[in-house]
Records
---
Amino acid sequence: MNMRKKIVAGNWKMNMNLQEGVALAEELNEALKAKSVKCDVVVGTPFIHLASVADAVDASRIGVAAQNCADKVSGAYTGEVSAAMVASTGAKYVILGHSERRAYYHETPEMLKEKVLLALANGLTPIFCIGEVLDERESGKHFEVVQSQIEASLFGLSADDFGRIVLAYEPVWAIGTGKTASAAQAQEMHAFIRRTLTGKYGAEVADRTSILYGGSCNASNAQELFSNPDVDGGLIGGASLGVDKFMPIIEAF
Ligand code: 13P
């Protein structure tokens, strides 16, 4: 059994109004009080929920994550939310590089590099997402795509800073499709990612990096996915929107 941190993180995406979000977080907090769980639990909420959700839960039970932050420190960037603002809400994590942000909001590797640096500078733990689209997998390019996503945005970091990153492998073809990667596909990619990290930062850093799987992960497949040696937890979309669906995933560890 490795000593890496096991993490189950929910990504609420653009769902639930403030009252619904706080109610879900409170319900999850209560459910966790009654159990002793073997992983860290995180909820990734829309920006406007962050402060209220951070207030509503026990920080020892649930970490709060933003789903994005700006690539600038502060200033005239209408509509943006900085890493410092995220940190000031009590959030401890920020999801960065999600495929939806790369695809729909044109986030580039260079922008993500800045976001990672600002997140780290403000004491946030980035949950950095990587993953190939279906065409890339079908043409056998999935390993090189994932490697280049990691290299382009993260390999400028010192080993110390890299040690504060959590990775999430999310094959785009598995997100919201009900078509999860098989346990073997997940393990194969996670092991590849860890070898890539070993090559750059050495075995100690690589062995300590938590690599989560995301993409149609749910109560019925979580245990099989999490039982792989290089799968250290999950980043959960749809199945994080109800305690009845999210709790069994947490308990899969
Ligand atoms: P689903 O679990 O809904 O497939 O979403 C995964 C995801 O994108 C989490 O960030």
---
Amino acid sequence: MSEAAPLRLGVNIDHVATIRNARGGEHPDPVKAALMAVAAGADGITAHLREDRRHIRDEDLVRLKAQLSRPLNLEMAATREMVGIALKTHPHAACIVPERRQELTTEGGLDAARHHNVLAPVVAELKAASIRVSLFITCDPRQIEAAASLGAPVIEIHTGAWCEAVADRRPAIASVEFQRIKDGAARARSLGLEVHAGHGLDYRTAETISGLAEIVELNIGHFLVGEALFGGLTETVKTMRAAMDRGRARLAVPS
Ligand code: PXP
């Protein structure tokens, strides 16, 4: 039996900052959470610096970059301001996401096909600075092909619609959405793209999606931070890692 490609866990610490910012001040510190997550087995840390700075602040990024022993993945909108910050901070990776000020979270994927002209220079500039670029898209063949034509080496599949259908116990929709992810991941790999996934994942959905061989990284935030209230961050990250490992173990394929 040969092993499937390893599956990385990126822990998104935005919502530790959300709690901090509810009262201002410094507590709880998202950088402390990031260091704990790494110690518990996270392969990387993700942080989204939003235009309105509703959770992560500029100085959090500076501290993350200085203190982390694992790769930092900066989620960012394709704006001049964010490109400037990315070039200055120089994270290991940048995930380009759509951003609307009113939304509660990143509600949909990028329209990589429609915004080709805006995205192309951003992808090129970040790549030229040796920052690994991913595009956060819904699993639609048009978007996957657009991401490939933009020269982005990585896509991150938006798993929100599938996770929502699972959580709402709508199995027919969940199964259509999962099939879409499965087909999209295979299509993306065939185009030479590295495939990541994230949004709305919990223990159960993370275990299921870990069974897709094409996916090599999951980025998970809200569930982990919420669950940490009950089980502690260290235990929560370890339990998530174990769920992913269980899902991945089913993948061992004959060589
Ligand atoms: N990946 C991307 C690109 C995201 O924008 C988010 C949400 O910030 C996540 C993953 C994590 O989603 P969640 O917080 O629902 O786990």
---
Amino acid sequence: MSHIPEDHPRRESLILREKLVEDFRKGIVVPQGLIAHGRGECFDYLIGEKTIEPAMKAIRAAAASLLMASYPVISVNGNSAALAAEHIVRLSKAIDAVIEVNLFHRSERRARLIAEKLAEFGARDVVGVDDVVEGVPGLSSDRRLVSSRGILKADVVLVMLEDGDRTEALRRLGKFVVAIDLNPLSRTARMANITIVDNVVRALDALIREVARLRNHSRGSLENLLKGYDNREVLAEAIRCIADRLMHLARNPEEIEVFEDLHKEL
Ligand code: PTJ
């Protein structure tokens, strides 16, 4: 990994980039994944690079749904493995979920490399490597290839950095889909039952904490939490967060950080 100075103002963001580049070189991340990350970074800027309140609402509902699930599955692709393998394994243990490798740009080698990376972080059993079947009707991408011990059997599926077609196809199959996607306008965001508009790294961290907090709550209280959740409203709230933030800066130019002696340079 390239050296990133301790005091670099954008250190956290650069570390994530380095993780992706490193795993791109290893063959875990595809080139398209680097582009997808750039789109995500842009939305992360717009939400202020923090977990916004609507994301917190979605995280609470997601934790409730995962705790109530009878067969939860965490779907992992190249980018999510590069950015958050450790979080994914920790969450899978906390909710007793199966981890499945599911790729848009699939190759057996990539699937195996991702499973090996997850195993390095302590994953016991990762499906979706050499046990996949054509399991998602109406989907022509490689994401239709799923495991009968994983997504095919799941009632709740957690997806990250997705393409909307698959989320829609999973919904048609009757799966309850929780998505993590920084873009509140994406098809994935709109097709999922619950959408966490946040960076996958922050979102998983918060989700693990929320699962621990809700673990001993009664089923009735978890059900109530879910009943009160409205994904359309939460997405609208996330869009308002971005709009309000931009309008605030547009109306208060003194809050835009610039180099003070800008004009003296002329
Ligand atoms: O590993 P593969 O073969 O399965 O391919 C993975 C990619 C990411 C290439 C594939 O799924 C893809 O093309 O995804 P999309 O359609 O570009 O969608 C990715 C979505 O994730 C976009 O809406 C991005 O805004 C969002 N995103 C990017 N980085 C992050 C993110 N969301 C959360 N956290 C991020 N770090």
